[in-house]
Structure formats: structure tokens, C-alpha cells
Fold this protein.
Amino acid sequence: MIDLKGNEKVREVLLEVYRRLYDYFGPRRWWPADSAFEMIVGAILTQNVSWKGAVQAIDNLKQWGWLDLGELLEAPEGELAELIRPARYHNQKARKLKSFCRVVAEEFDSRLDDFLTQETGSLRRSLLAVYGIGPETADCIVLYAAERPVFIIDAYTHRIFNRLGYFGARVKYDEMQAFFVRNLPCDTKLFNEYHAQIDALGHRICLKRAPLCGGCPISVMCKAAETNAAAP
Ligand code: SF4
């Protein structure tokens, strides 16, 4: 495995991966939401499920008039859970949404802008203190709602960069994040698009069980490609 410290060669490789993905998939225009609050709700609803289920749950909230911090806070938890059922784990997620809204209401007088304009480290800590928000969801919110340059790690990132030969099976979230931050320019737009490109590759081509290496835009850079091509 390549060590996790920054160097010019790794930086070039990471930028080349990005260029190839961008040329292949085109701009992803993330995060698909009409407001910062909708983005945050979506980040919680899409935990452990496909985006499709989260979208259906968000549409239900919109139709019910509950896609609003105050409304969500007032909503009976059981009814809220029913409304977001398409996003699965609906009881847990109803509790998570209400927990987030409660923090903003109690500590920031319901002013989401004030919550999001905290200094980056403080914002991340505030998010991680909310029930049900872990590093990936917190970083999604910091990047896509607060527009700060943090690099999001998810299962696709680990799988793809493990196959490329950079990460071991047991590498930690913070180590992977530090790897990208050390080797890439600190740029919110780049981090935004890079994560979206990784998601497209992991979702469509670099599949968990049978990656479609023959059609992969980064196969020439991938250590696993030869093995996968040789597999029956
Ligand atoms: S070549 Fe195959 S294993 Fe490597 S990143 Fe592409 S799809 Fe994944």
C-alpha cells in the first residue's frame, strides 16, 4: 500500500482519476436540493439506502408541508416516521431529523444560517454530537450545505481506492480523509465534484461483487482491473 502522506506523484494520480471520471460522467451538479435544509434532511434520509428512497420521503415531506425546521420539530414522531417510510429505518431517521432540528432550535434559536456559518471544526463537532449523525453525514453537510472544503469518505471511496491500490481493508475514515486532503488542492468545488464522481463510479461501474472493469474510465490506473478481467 502507498503511505498516506502527501506527495506530488500521488497528487497527479488523484487529479488524473478525477479528470477521467469527469470526462466520462460529466458534471454531477450535487447536491440535488432546493435549500440547505432540504440538503441536510436528504443527507440523513439517504443513510444506508439508495437516493431513490430518500427522494420519495422528501417528496412526502414537501407535500405534507413538513420540509421545514419548525414543522419537523412540532411533528408527532410516529407520523413523521410513517411519512419517511420509503427511506427505510424510518423510526430511527425520524428521531435523527428531530434531534438535528432540536439542536438548531435550542442552541441557535432556529437560525440554520447561524448554525452553518460556525467555524468549520466547530460545525463538524456540533453535527457529530447530534444523535445519528456520523462522520460521513456530517462531512456531507459541511461540504454541500455549508460549502466548506472537507473531503467525504463513503463505502464507494474505500472500495475504489482499495482496488486502485491505495487503501487497505481496515483503513480508518480519518486516515482516508487525510490522504485526500493532503494530496489535493483545498478547493470546495473540487471536493464537491470529486465525491459526486466517485459516487457515480461506485454506483454504476465499480460494483461490489462484479465490477465492470471493461467499461471503467480508470481501468488503466487500477491494480485490480487485471485480476477482475481474468476472473471467469
Ligand atoms: S478497473 Fe474495475 S476494480 Fe478498478 S476502479 Fe474500475 S471498475 Fe473498479
